[in-house]
Structures are given as structure tokens and as C-alpha cells.
Amino acid sequence: MNYFSESYSLKIKNSIFRPLNYILGPLQNNFLHKEDLKYLDLYPPVFIVGPPRSGTTVLYQLLCKHTNFSYINNFIGHWYRIPILAAKAYTALFQGENELELNSNFGKSKNHYGPNEFGEFWYKYYSKTHSFKDQNKKSADKLKMEIAAITKIFEKPILLKNVVNSMRIESLSNIFNNSTFIVIGRDKLDNAQSILNARISLHNDKNHQWSVITPSMRNNPSLPFYKDIISQLDDIQLNIESSFKRIGNNKFIFIEYEDLCNNTPKVIKSILQKLNSRGLNLNEKGQIPRKLNFSTGIKVSEPDYELLRKEIRKNEKS
Predict the structure, then answer these.
(1) What is the pLDDT of residue 11?
(2) The domain spanning residue 128 has which CATH number?
(3) Exposure string over 155-178, b if 16+ CB within 10 A, otherwise e
(4) pTM score, two decimals?
(5) Is residue 32 part of a domain?
(6) DSSP sequence for 69-137
């Protein structure tokens, strides 16, 4: 199935699921219980963050496939206004484990059991500018109780991946005070080229803003693509670095995409070791691939490559 047929299929699904989510949404309140919050202490949540096209999805898939994390799958993700009920239904309807595939289409995994970014769920609580919509404690408690109730169902630490959460780290850390953030980084020029190719593949337009819309992108919507993409990467990096300084080293694990690809078992084992030292009690399972496909170099037209390369060098000097 090519991208356009998948995109059309997604639009059909959204036209069905969106109204059903709003109709059934009030049912979620029946499954929110403060006593479930203890499960976030027993099984602290872990967030994967980083720029788009930096390797967050393959890391997500690897950890879902080769560890005993629980995660939000596509079935639950479709029911973003009733995820607790959806998680209960999933465990009742689908018994046993499924073989996850290490492939995706711009962050989207296949099959009902494939890992899901849970984007619509997070937008219930966060605005398009990445701030928490409702600053009162009641709303934050509701978010905690939703994740706690899902954690209770699976009785495992939950792994949550969404690249937009890279701009919400401090808020999420304040709400989930024992959470950990796995940050994946990638060579900036390789990362920028991959974002450019995504813009072309998805929208046939180099200047079409895509994925995480950062402050610089929002404030300067008419920037040429090469400036816009590098601003996007710089904003995300800046937010991660500032969050790291404010929150502290004990909440973060940093890895590099190239290392993940070239030394896959070593990186996965290192992540588990660090998380287990924080009390998560995670286990490795299955045969972790020895390495993943990795390549670098020119992946776009030479003129576009030079524009991106020069913009990176200019920003590094400034």
C-alpha cells in the first residue's frame, strides 16, 4: 500500500473514530480513580523524545519488541478519549503476543498491535503551542489517572513515544515526577535531509511545515525550507538542553542514532541497565538484531544539501 492510499485510509478511519471518541468520551470518567496513582510509583512511565526523523520510532519499536515494557498500540490509540476502556477491551479481545515489525511509515507502525504515538490523546491536554491547556491541578491529576489506569491494566512500566513531547518535557516531568526521558540524537545534517525528504514525500512541498511546530517556525512561517528545518532542529535541541539543566541528569538517558544502528544490542542493554538502576525491573526478550541499516551522506539534491549544510554551519558560528 503506497502512502496516498494509506493517507486516504487514515482519513476514512478518522471520520469514523473521531465522532465516536467524542460520543463515548464521558465514559472515561468512570474509570478514573485516585488510588490507581500508586501504579505510577510501582511502574514509572518512560518517554522517548527527540527531533522528528531522528530514530525515535525504531527505538520505540525495538524496546516494545525486545523488552517487557507496555505501550500504547494502534488499537488503543484510535480510542484516545477512552484509552482505559480500550486497553481493557484489547486485553480481553487479543490474547498472546504478536511479532512486532521494525518498520514504519513516517512514525506510523502497522497492525492493531503496532506501537502508536498517541498524538490525539496528548492534544487533549496540550495546546498547539505545547503549553498545558488547563493549568489547574484537577486537569493534571486527570492525565496522571489516565496513564495510571492503563499502567494498572498491563502491570508493567509504560513506554510513551511522541516527538512533540520533546517540547513538553518540563511539564511532563512535573506531572509524572518519577518519569524518565530517553533522548535520541542524530547527525544534524542527516536529520535535516530526512525531514526534507519527509516534506517532499508527504506533501510534495519542501516548504510545508511538518511534525513538531516549534516557536521559530510558528513565528516565521515564510522562512525558506532550509532555514525552517534547521530552526526546527535547533529549537528542539534547545528545549531538551534547557529541560535537562532544570530537571537534572537522573531523569535523562541520551543515545545516538548511529550507535543504536551500529551497536543495537549494546545500546538496548545499556538503556535497560540504566532504567533498572532506577527501579523499573525491565527484562530483555527475544534476539535483538546485531545492527540496523545505517547510512549517511547526501540524501537530497546537491543544491538542497548545500543549503542545509551552510545553514547549519552559519548557526553554529552565530
Answers:
(1) 59
(2) 3.40.50
(3) ebbbbbbbbbbbbbbebbbebbee
(4) 0.94
(5) no
(6) -EE-BHHHHHTTTSHHHHHHHHHHH--S-----S--BTTBPPSTTSB---HHHHHHHB-TTSSBS--SH
